């Protein structure tokens, strides 16, 4: 890989594998699940597999998934024996993927039918890009459009450290995670983290490996209502959602800063770039010093 993050070698999938893998982790998603799956199955780009990992749902999720898998041979349905948490379930579908590119999706959102075709075209042509996504439109429970999200961004700087800092400073809502990702690059990261804001750390790490390209078209319809978006969960509810086994585990701030540090250290970039990114991580820890102290006091009690 060059300094800019360009992928020089072919990363073609083994013969017979689809070019795109779509991973859908789900837990009790019966309300909008069929619509979400349908938006993937109706993509104009058809060379795909859809991996659904059911986190031991207790509603009709399993019934819906099995019925849709019977109708479309591209769907692979896996049911976890227990709830492993959202973070590990996202990682599961990424590790199970056979494609050259991965799209994560959720049971609550839907994708424009041209999403994969447009993003595949970009990643095929632009070797320095590790992620491509489109603009986001919020929808309500009935699928009605609520308006465009105005803060989706490209991160196309040449320097990996600038992309890393840009994602940490400027990405406020992680719509980009539902874009199309170069799987070889993603698997070199630590994947999802099982604590609040861990997804943003993963995205910053991914930016060390290449650029993020934003297309002008609306390609994601993201449901924004209570019960369908994690931003409406309380801190404790979010911890349970991410990892029910460690919902009370502390040191969130310490884990976040340590993960940022380790993400930079293991990235295949020049030491000059590592130093610039680590300087930002150190300054961020200083800015968050009160939160870091609070973590220690919570642990001591």
Supply the key terms.
11 helices; alpha/beta; 9 strands; disordered N terminus; 301 residues; Spore Coat Polysaccharide Biosynthesis Protein SpsA, Chain A
Overview of this protein structure:
With 301 residues, this protein is an alpha/beta fold. It has helices at residues 33-41, 61-71, 86-96, 115-125, 160-170, 183-186, 198-207, 235-242, 252-266, 271-287, 289-300; strands spanning 20-26, 48-54, 75-79, 101-104, 110-111, 129-139, 145-148, 180-182, 211-223. It is globular and about 55 Å long. Mean pLDDT is 90; it is low at 1-15.
State the fourth-level CATH superfamily of the largest domain: Spore Coat Polysaccharide Biosynthesis Protein SpsA, Chain A
Low-confidence stretches: 1-15
Structural class category: alpha/beta
**Radius of gyration computed on alpha carbons:** 19 Å
Give a brief description.
By secondary structure, the chain is α/β, with parallel strands linked by helices. The protein contains eleven helices and nine strands. It has two domains: 20-246, Spore Coat Polysaccharide Biosynthesis Protein SpsA, Chain A (Alpha-Beta Complex), CATH 3.90.550.10; 252-300, no CATH class.
What is this structure's SSE topology?
Layout: E1 20-26, H1 33-41, E2 48-54, H2 61-71, E3 75-79, H3 86-96, E4 101-104, E5 110-111, H4 115-125, E6 129-139, E7 145-148, H5 160-170, E8 180-182, H6 183-186, H7 198-207, E9 211-223, H8 235-242, H9 252-266, H10 271-287, H11 289-300
Parallel strand pairs: 1-2, 1-4, 2-3, 6-9
Antiparallel strand pairs: 4-8, 5-9, 6-7, 6-8
